[in-house]
Amino acid sequence: MQESQSRLMEMFETEKLVVRSLESKDKNHFIELLSDPKIIDPIPQSRLSEAQVLDKFHENLNLEWQDLHREKYTCGIFEKGNPEMIGLCLFLTNDEKDKELGYRFRFNYWGKGYGSEIARGMIDYYFDTLNAQKVAADVNTENIGSVRILKKFMTPVKEFYNEERQCRVRRYSIEKKNWLR
User: Fold this and answer.
1) C-alpha 10: how far from its chain's center?
2) pLDDT below 50 — which residues of the chain?
3) Of 164, 113, 112, nearest in space to 138 by CA
4) Taking the model in full, what pTM does it have?
């Protein structure tokens, strides 16, 4: 049982979704989520080489509880009852050392309300399980879908131009004391 638990470390569940550590069988969907232009361009994220994508996959493969203290790690998002990975949860630390959430879904899972569901689940997880006091998220201001989602839960705190990504970015945040109200 212990070996199985560490292999399939489940982070949290929402009404329709499960977030858990990545397994070898998730590799092709992981590659899609880091290389499909429809997914990457709105973020936007710098294009990664195939070797960089594979390195990211292997560094996040089979996470264990002690890995949750790293500054960043990635887990898979799954619909309950569906073994196929549909998205990624990115647990990050931003330049101001705040915990930051990130997420992305495979294109055919867009428009189903999963972005809002996973953002709420991640905020709960950061506050309730990881005991963070503040959670932030950065978004390309032209990524209208993610802007709408973040506005539901967080307050915009600053806007800046990201030279590397060549876009205007808005940072949102929420403090634990305001989330619990």
Assistant:
1) 15
2) 1-6
3) 164
4) 0.90
Alpha-carbon torsion, ordered 105, 67, 126, 6, to 10 deg:
70
- Token pair in block for residue 84: 């196929």
φ, ψ for residue 92, nearest 5 deg: -125, 170
- Do 30 and 22 form a contact (C-beta atoms < 8 A)? yes
Rounded to 5°, angle at Cα 43 from 84 and 24 = 30
Give pLDDT tens digits for 98-108.
999 999 999 99
Rounded distance, CA 27 to CA 79, Å?
A: 17
Residue 44: the pLDDT is: 66
For 4, the 3-state DSSP assignment is: helix
Spell out the domains of the chain, with CATH numbers in brackets: 2-133 (3.40.630.30)
Within 10 Å of residue 154's Cβ, how many Cβ atoms? 22
Rounded to whole angstroms, the Cα distance separating 138 from 158 reads 10
pLDDT number for residue 115:
97
Q: Which tokens belong to 14?
A: 């929402």
What pLDDT sits at residue 101?
96
